[in-house]
Amino acid sequence: MIIQLIGIALLGFIGIIVVIDIVPIFRDWLSRIHIGRYQDKQIWNKSITNLGLKWLNTTPKIKVTDNTRLVVIDMLKGNYTKSAIQHWQEASLLLGLSEYLMNHDDKEVQNELRKFLNSKFDSQGQWMNKPVHVDGAILAYAVMKLDFIEIDRYKQAFDYTWQMIKDHVGHDGTVAYRKFMKGYRYVDTIGFICPFLVSYGLRYSMDECVDLAIEQIKAYDEQGMLKGHHIPSHAYQVDQKLPLGLYGWGRGLGWYAIGLIDAWNELPAAHKYKSVLEESVKKFAKAAITFQQDQGSWNWTVTRRESRPDSSTTATLGWFMLNASRITDISEDCLNSANKATNYLMKVTRRNGAVDFSQGDTKDIGVYSMLFNILPFTQGFCIRMMNSHNSPKVVKR
To answer: Where are the transmembrane segments (predicted)?
Structure first.
């Protein structure tokens, strides 16, 4: 009797493991039936925005590993997802929805955003769970982009974020990705911190914040770019100035692009750094356009046509191109590039509005995911890009 009960329990446990593995695979297969049927941009925009709103307060967890078998082991070990990854997923959705609100007086969206803020910050405007990595800065920046709230209410959280970033500054005067890796500079960090530093520095009259953002970008332009092609390596070693990882990692281009273009956007026209960043925008735009595929995507390795298209790269570079089109010298090429990116992203959108086929989370320098699925980060930038099409700020200069 006891042996039978043990056998039944064991079979039940095995069944649970199988279900945990099989259900996501089956769900993806089912969700991809009739993928890419959107033809009208307004209908597509409404669909992706509605889903992004649903995800804001129930953000899908993003896997750290690429395992698709015995996933329960990763869950038990705490290796399934990480809070730092969630920060930039949530930030992207917040950025997308804040762009939507610039053109829509939508109380439902505002209420969901307030609900999100109440889950992240206490009554004093401080983080409930203080981020310890620079990934958290992009979430702080996203909060600063919300026009319908009293931004200064969250100044304690912004001040903490600035201090946290300062704690990551290395001996070369630029910001490390992690405290225990101060000898390396990652391209991700540009996207994480530079828009926040410029926005925070301008709002609270702290020039050193803006200076640090510009120095971070300039240092990467000098040390982390492939000569003659101006695309970033995944990282570089500070003292020996050695490139690390892949030149042309798609999402690496995306991180550089959003850090650069959002920092440029935040600067007023007369600011001393505006023209400095504008030159970087023009140079990078021309470089990135040469790697865009005919169907509008950028691949996860942009330099290889044989590699898979990556929706996260395409969404972030599409956002960059749309904003870079405000610069007269490159306006037509950038706007054409942004439109091609949009058309591609519509073709890889599931029936429920989820933009599919984004590369999974990177494991280490040079160790890239081979899983391509939904990613809230991509969803947010698609929403952001589409709602900027109607924004009065995106005009030729």
So the answer is: 6-26
